[in-house]
Structure formats: C-alpha cells, structure tokens
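User: Hey, quick favor. My workstation is busy. Could you predict this chain's structure for me?
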Amino acid sequence: MITANQLRAARALLGIDQKTLADMAGVSVPTIQRMEASTGDVRGIVDSLMKVINALDHAGVELIGEQARSDSGGRGVRLRQPASSRPG
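Assistant: No problem, here it is.
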C-alpha cells in the first residue's frame, strides 16, 4: 500500500503537481486530491490506485514499504532511474 504522505513526497521528488500526476496515471485530479487527503493508507478504487502506483514507478519513484529494510524503519520514497532509461 501507499500512504498519502508517500504520494505527496513522490510528487515532490518528481517536481510535479497533482494535475501532472493525474495525467500520467490516467485518472482525474479529484482522484489524486482524495488520495492525498486520506489518513494513513490511501483509500480509493483499486484500479485507480494501481494506475497511480504504476505511473510513479514508471517515472522512477520507488515506494518503500513499512517492512522494507532501512536503518530507521518506516515508510518512504526513493527516486531511481526512470523505467524508460533503465537498461532492458
């Protein structure tokens, strides 16, 4: 799952606004706004959520889950090389 904080942080890493993310994911701006207004894990239609996650992944954002290995624990995001630039 992704949290509202991760979603906002991912947009910040990419330097994009809600409209740009909505366009990238093929969802509406109000959908992104509702997702970012969620408390804790993002709530919404699974199909829309997967579109957003896939768009972020393609743009180079790695979502770090609660159980992922890190020195401090917790969730986060990391910017990596976008999928279109990775050797294939």
